[in-house]
Alanine racemase (Acetobacter persici), 376 residues
Amino acid sequence: MHRDGWEGGRLLINLAAIAENYAQLCARVSPAECGAAVKANAYGLGLKEVGQTLYEAGCRTFFVAHLAEGAALRPLVGPDSRIFVLHGPPPGTASACLTHTLLPVLNSLQQVQDWQALARTQGRPLAAALQLDSGMCRFGLTEAEVNHLTTHPQELEGIEVTLVMSHLGCADTPEHPLNRQQLETFTRLKALLPAAPASLAASSGIFLGPDWHFDLVRPGAALYGIAPTAEQPNPMHATVRLQARVIQTRMVPAGASVGYGAAFTARQPTPVALLGIGYGDGFPRRLGQTGHVVWPDQPDIKLPIIGRISMDSLAVDLSPLMATGTALPPAGAVFDLIGPQVPLDTVARLADTIGYEILTDLGARYHRLHYDPRKG
Ligand SMILES: *Cc1c(COP(=O)(O)O)cnc(C)c1O
């Protein structure tokens, strides 16, 4: 173990930045309520720390994908919080929602029937959200199923619909015609059902404008610093910094190759640093020969990742540092792989994916440090 208490990769997670992002989104959507999506371990950043931070920041409505995620979140946030389970209960498990005080999102007539059956055995109405498919063809009741419910209202008896929701498929592309089409479909279908608070927008939908806000928004990505709108400046604060240490440096002679598959060949003598992070840590292998890192001592110099990324390490070309006459970083030096000069969205673009996948892939192997500059 290094004397600072970590080796390999380290993930710094700024909880104050998450709280600031939450406050920014609240202000943007007011008077609508701002909830938070904390599925997938709060997008890889830690359900416990992120859940508690958002609760302290005033968030009272949370969204998870699975029942088990909801059960894990329940003791972390106050009893005055609502936790919606986006996938609804799998067949035969509806009563687990009651055990853990979770609200299911009912996505199909089957889930509606299961929830109604549970309400009957409980002898009281049970609250739930109803999801409509407004054009993404993912989860939710189709138009035909909504029509069925309007002609068979008894199928909703015993279900207290506390939220009617739907999800947008193209919200990160504001000019996409599906955005307004889904808005219109949602508005029309929702009017067929008993009146209830409504929710359509996640992070990107918030930035489409107030028409999309309804009563409640459900951001995830934007809370964690991912740009909500493609090709636009990112208004959110970065929340993560990914660092790795230099294990050793070496001079690779001209004509020699570096790493598996001999994918990189040095044209001239090349100073190389080996960092202790690789795809086994969740760092994308796609970034071999493509990504770059930064040594914070020389923040303006991009250092290319050369060769293929190994399971536990990657190689970085230090030539741009040497060209400036800077002393080369010693073993133990800390490099940024995601940081102020290497934004998450840039890393995602270079890896041919989205910031969401980069965050959720960030492995449990990293030393994780949650910190809150507000609390010293
Ligand atoms: C994941 C998810 C969200 C949050 O989406 P972001 O794009 O991360 O803001 C909101 N609603 C539903 C239904 C989701 O699946």
